[in-house]
Amino acid sequence: MHCMPLYVLTVHIYSLFLCVSVCCCFFFHFFKFQAWWWITDTVSTDLWGKWTLKDSVWHYSSLSTGYTGNYLQVVQGTSILATVFTILALFVFVAQLFTLPKGQRFICTGILQLIACLCIMTAASVYTAQFHIGETGAYGHSYILAWISFVLTVVLTVTYLILRKKTE
Q: Which long-range contacts (CB under 8 A, 24 or more apart) does 93-97 make?
């Protein structure tokens, strides 16, 4: 049986911790007041409202009635859930390092990351399919970060499952 040196295992753990932390930062960034859709250089929308630049100051206003409805609530709710599950996964990851035996270490963290992954995929997919169809504009940086976060959570979930199997 081949055993990994301690320094290699430590590097893996720090790398995973860093990836989950980055994912948490991405989630906070894209579900907060950040541009999901740019209409012009002076007007953008996010999940919560519309931002207009006047006299070098951004002004917030409510979304128009075309944005209200169940689809917006789905995107908002699943974005918040993705953030919550990722933060939980970070804390569970740290707790599992010190409390569980090697074969069971990353099961709970992997499950939480998988749920976060599904939540953000749902949010970004619904936003893509239901909003801004036929409008002029461009997707903002928060929308792009949402899809990058989805890919990162998929990679983390697979990594947790692989690490769990290697230690059994």
A: 93/16, 93/17, 93/20, 94/17, 97/13
Q: How many CB atoms lie within 10 A of CB 48?
A: 17
pLDDT grade, residue 15 (50/70/90)? low
- Angle between helices 6-31 and 107-130 in degrees, nearest 10: 30
Query: Exposed, middle or buried: residue 109 (CB in 10 Å: 0-12, 13-18, 19+)?
Result: buried
Q: How many CB atoms lie within 10 A of CB 108?
A: 17
3-state secondary structure of 71: helix
Return the axis-axis angle of helices 6-31 and 141-167, rounded to nearest 10°: 150
pLDDT band at 61 (very low <50, low <70, confident <90, very high): confident
Question: How many other C-beta atoms lie within 10 A of the C-beta of residue 97?
Answer: 14
Taking the alpha carbons at both ends of the chain, their separation in whole angstroms is: 11
**89-108 pLDDT tens trace:** 888 887 877 776 666 667 78
For residue 119, which of 46, 23, 48, 44 has the smallest C-alpha distance? 23
